[in-house]
Amino acid sequence: MTETILNWVNICVKKDEEILLLNRQHDNFKGWIQPGGKVEFPESFFEAARRELKEETGLTALNLELKGISGFTNPSKKERYVYYDFLCTAFEGQVRGNDHEGEPKWWKISELGQIDMQDDIRERLPLYRRKGSFERIHYWNEEKHCIGETKTILYD
């Protein structure tokens, strides 16, 4: 059986002690999330991150640092959802909303623990700000229909 891989990008946009998040209230990713989305073949991962950031926030990335790889693996179905996690600290343009993706808002890093977001995002956001890179993979338990194990590996 051949492995199926779907590629996505996440962008953590940081300005001083704030992070830009989107208030997403549709599909399975409700709550505050970072900009990102599916990589459209044949674009590169960096091109996808730059495109998604522009589409969802109006900002143009002037720098993108690949900080890590995260995602979900379903061993039973041989499926992987791979997220390329980028940090952006230099950009141009004005933040604007996108009705479909959610309204953007700058949040103080100290406030992130108080806002509605998925646990995976809450746990992954500090990884963007640390020195080095990371890998964070959730292994899906098909029988129980839930995450069976999560591995986080930090590289300095």
Please explain how this structure is put together.
- The chain is an alpha+beta fold.
- It has a single domain (2-153), classed as Nucleoside Triphosphate Pyrophosphohydrolase (Alpha-Beta Complex).
- It is 15% helix and 47% strand.
- The protein has helices at residues 45-57, 119-129; strands at residues 4-15, 18-24, 31-33, 36-38, 60-61, 65-74, 79-88, 91-92, 103-108, 133-141, 146-155.
- Strands 1, 2, 3, 4, 6, 7, 9, 10 and 11 form a 9-stranded mixed β-sheet that branches. The protein has a two-stranded antiparallel ribbon with strand order 5-8.
- The model has no long low-confidence stretch (mean pLDDT 94).
- Residues 1-130 form the Nudix hydrolase domain.
- Keywords: Hydrolase.
- InterPro entries: NUDIX_hydrolase-like_dom_sf, NUDIX_hydrolase_CS, NUDIX_hydrolase_dom.
List key phrases describing it.
Nucleoside Triphosphate Pyrophosphohydrolase; globular; alpha+beta; two-stranded antiparallel sheet
Biggest pleated-sheet summary: 9 strands, mixed
The helix-strand sequence is EEEEHEEEEEHEE
Q: What is the CATH top level name?
A: Alpha Beta
| Poorly predicted runs of 5 or more residues | none
Inertia-based shape: globular
Please count the beta strands (DSSP E, at least 2 residues each).
11
Task: Measure the end-to-end span.
Answer: 35 Å
What is the CA-based Rg, rounded?
15 Å
Derived structural class? alpha+beta
Strand content is: over 45%
CATH superfamily: Nucleoside Triphosphate Pyrophosphohydrolase
Number of domains: 1
